[in-house]
Amino acid sequence: MALLQYHAPVDYAAQLDAFKDFLTHFKTFESASVSAATEAIEDLHVDGDRTSDEYDFMDDVEDGNGAQREGSSRRRREPKVKYMQILQEIADRERTNILIELDDLATFEKSLPEETDLKLVESVLKNTKRYVDVLSQAADAVMPKETKEITFKDDVLDVIMSQREKRNEAMAMAMEADMDTAAEPSIFPPELTRRYTLNFKPITPSGSSSERESKALAVRNVRAEHLGSLITVRGITTRVSDVKPAVQINAYTCDRCGSEVFQPITTKSYLPMTECKSNECQQNNSKGQLFLSTRASKFVPFQEVKVQEMADQVPVGHIPRTMTVHCHGSLTRQLNPGDVVDIAGIFLPTPYTGFRAIRAGLLTDTYMEAQHITQHKKSYDETAMDGRTLRKIEQHQKSGNMYEYLARSIAPEIYGHLDVKKALLLLLIGGVTKEMGDGMHIRGDINICLMGDPGVAKSQLLKYIAKVAPRGVYTTGRGSSGVGLTAAVMRDPVTDEMVLEGGALVLADNGICCIDEFDKMDDSDRTAIHEVMEQQTISISKAGITTTLNARTSILAAANPLYGRYNPRVSPVENINLPAALLSRFDVMFLILDTPSRDGDEELAHHVTYVHMHNKHPESEDAGVMFTPHEVRQYIAKARTYRPVVPASVSDYMVGAYVRMRKQQKRDESEKKQFAHVTPRTLLGVVRLSQALARLRFSEEVVTEDVDEALRLVDVSRESLSNDGQGSADQTPSSKIYHLIRSMWESGAAAVGEEGELNMRRIRERVLAKGFTEDQLTMTIDEYDELGVWQVNGNGTRLMFIGGDAEMAM
């Protein structure tokens, strides 16, 4: 008994006409997000006097060109024939990809009469592979003529197509002369003449949250029912192959009749054609031999990507699953290993060809043909500032407290550690990388090491930075080998060649590599990152491969002391137990101790319990404005576009501060209490921190205040290392403030003039940043003024040590 035949009630001709109408007449306004981002970047003048859009409107009214501006904005708001404009760009050779947004198609379908039940969106979602061809036919039918002279862009396809057209015209004229109607000129496959690739963008969740297809699926949730459909899968890319040309149309030439024969290729492997199928060879009963014409064939870029499901999508006791994704055309080179992405594509079975097709069973492999890629975290170069963030920044920039606001916005659920958060903010921004004329490279990335007792939130800070940074890699010292951090030589399973597989530092190129449990690494593995931290390259010479890889990354390391907790009875050198060659490569190194304190412990406990009760950080009055991680990322992206320079006056000030630091080190070495050595790398670290602070202000020039704050951070980190924890609990606030001002005097951080006077404004900023109050500072100044230790001038702007203290400090 024969199987019943079923004809699907699909009117492809009517749908094709509807798609032509859609491409020709669909109008839309410019995307609000795109226009807002463009205007935000163009109108961002943080250092100027413009603070809001209301003043822009007033300027437009008063300006003589106001009417022209209003006219341009009105023109920008006029609806545009979206897809005809795209097709015109393709005809003018300015574009190679057509992206059909299903949101637009759904809007167009709603405007159709109710009696035309074509179900365009549903058909595309359920049978996507077929409708890629249908939409391509519609695009070919309505493709406009070019409007620009493009003769200077003649490529191989232009030359070959012109020759083919001339040959077809000659053959047509010959057939008319011979009155031979049986012979027909060869017809080109439409894929051969198309200069574009067509892809679908799925329905966005905001546009249709009820649509099941609009939600991103985990790899293990992709079922057999999704075969042939357009689905969206969320995951992390683990392996990305090289971009290689994949043949789409093979062109053959017959040695007997000279005809061209075309063979569309839809699988990975194929059987080349050998016999000519033209009318002339068949009439003459001659088997002409076909020769492959590679130059006349059509190739498209092809890339294979492995996508692994996210860690939070894996059930308990299971291992992550992977999926193979095929990218063609403009979708290649958009993914890198480690990217978290949503990939919309067509879920298809892998067809068996050749000998495998004979032995194929009931099981088949599957893959996804990518249609649209959405990056979860964009790089700084691709991040645009939206209008809301712009207004929020302009509103608070004038207060001069953006540095404090952004620092408090980093991991706000973690209590305290304000100076550490400020240093991490500068690490995210980074300094300016210099490339000398002779090829010498001076790094601009900042390296920071956090060392301290267990339970002081070091790992949480590392994970937060890895999450905020557009390119962040988190790894642990014990779970990483030297090869895993740098690069490994592996054998490619496809080509059977020895290839380099980049490690964590290579994956974090132009990003941040967070290494936890830094002290647990083996010495042989730890030496692998010495070159990365200063030269920012990885030199490989193994298995016949000699090369140098880029690793332009910032290192953020966290380590515990040698004995688990900090032991105040031994020296800091014995506690930290890291080689000096490695420590000198860190620009800032903080020692975070867990010292009992009634007030501090009570505030910490209140903070932790509040976070557990409300799932958010407490809103304190002194915290100021808080920024979301997305807003912080946008601010940093804008700040990194500046390349501040150090003027001569600031350079002299920086040189004087460095000389005083070296002088203080010599004095400390004579007293045998020095730990962190001041080296020329320390000066470079101060320069990088100063440039990051200038970038934070959206400035192209470093000022003295930037250098003071950089020196303060370096001094704070050195004080935390040199403080052995003895007697600090018994000190009164007055004694602590005195020692703080004394250290500022010795380091020259707040020096004014030639006589060694201190600036009271900088003293007040430093003391208040340490957590002391204004009353405690005033009480300390009055107390030591009465004792004759220092004196304050009449207007209270400068402080100077007197007597033996001044001579000792000098």
Automatic annotation (TrEMBL):
Region of interest: Disordered: 52-78
Signal peptide annotation: none
Compartments, record wording: Nucleus
An annotated GO BP: DNA replication initiation
GO MF term list: ATP binding; ATP hydrolysis activity; single-stranded DNA binding; single-stranded DNA helicase activity
Substrates-to-products reaction catalysed: ATP + H2O = ADP + phosphate + H(+)
Domain MCM C-terminal AAA(+) ATPase: 402-608
Biased composition (Acidic residues): 54-63
Keyword 4Fe-4S: no
Pfam families found in the cross-reference section: MCM (PF00493), MCM_lid (PF17855), MCM_N (PF14551), MCM_OB (PF17207), WHD_MCM7 (PF24901)
PROSITE patterns according to UniProt: MCM_1, MCM_2
InterPro entries per record: AAA+_ATPase, MCM, MCM7, MCM_CS, MCM_dom, MCM_lid, MCM_N, MCM_OB
UniProt xrefs under CDD domains: MCM7 (cd17758)
Enzyme Commission number(s): 3.6.4.12
Protein keywords: ATP-binding, Cell cycle, DNA replication, DNA-binding, Helicase, Hydrolase, Nucleotide-binding, Nucleus
GO CC term, one of those recorded: MCM complex
Described purpose of this protein according to its UniProt entry: Acts as component of the MCM2-7 complex (MCM complex) which is the replicative helicase essential for 'once per cell cycle' DNA replication initiation and elongation in eukaryotic cells. The active ATPase sites in the MCM2-7 ring are formed through the interaction surfaces of two neighboring subunits such that a critical structure of a conserved arginine finger motif is provided in trans relative to the ATP-binding site of the Walker A box of the adjacent subunit. The six ATPase active sites, however, are likely to contribute differentially to the complex helicase activity.
PANTHER family in alphabetical order: DNA REPLICATION LICENSING FACTOR MCM FAMILY MEMBER, DNA REPLICATION LICENSING FACTOR MCM7
UniProt-recorded name of the protein: DNA replication licensing factor MCM7
Gene name linked to the record: MCM7
